[in-house]
């Protein structure tokens, strides 16, 4: 099978996974997608493929902006505000990495995002169920 066929197959699986995913899983997919694209950008940076690097870093920034903008600052309080500031910082650092062509900055962003993704994976099912129930009650009240 050609690489093109494999990539099409992967895209189909990802689209199916997204269609069936709950909000927790979608967030996890976004975080993992950002980490994957940082790795791809590093490779492009090392190969001096500036347009490719720019495209991947743009996608990472878009993912982080999405994650940042979906935070509920009213409900999340100080934790949500800190996460908002951290996502902002990572977005700024990606811009620095793009301009300076600096692999270490990409490593820094990876080192900030990885523990968040790892913690997200560890959320117990009971906590997810409770959060979904609260969201549903909130929707019905509106």
Automatic annotation (TrEMBL):
Membrane-crossing segments per the record: none
Presence of keyword Chaperone: yes
InterPro entries reported in the protein's UniProt record: FliS, FliS_sf
Keywords: Bacterial flagellum biogenesis, Cell projection, Chaperone, Cilium, Cytoplasm, Flagellum
Main location per the UniProt record: cytoplasm
Cellular compartments annotated: Cytoplasm, Cytosol
One Pfam family linked to the record: FliS
Recorded family membership: Belongs to the FliS family.
Name of this chain's protein: Flagellar secretion chaperone FliS
């Amino acid at each position: 099978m050609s690489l093109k066929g494999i990539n099409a197959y992967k895209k189909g699986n990802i689209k199916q996974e997204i269609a069936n995913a709950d909000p927790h899983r979608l967030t996890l997919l976004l975080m993992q997608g950002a980490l994957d694209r940082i790795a791809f950008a590093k490779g492009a940076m090392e190969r001096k493929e500036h347009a490719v690097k720019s495209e991947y870093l743009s996608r990472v920034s878009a993912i982080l902006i999405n994650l940042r903008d979906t935070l509920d600052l009213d409900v999340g309080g100080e934790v949500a505000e800190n996460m908002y500031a951290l996502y902002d910082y990572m977005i700024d650092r990606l811009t620095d990495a793009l301009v300076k062509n600096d692999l270490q900055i990409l490593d820094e962003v990876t080192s900030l995002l990885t523990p968040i993704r790892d913690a997200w994976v560890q959320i117990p099912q009971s906590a997810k169920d409770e959060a979904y129930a609260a969201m549903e009650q909130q929707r019905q009240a509106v």
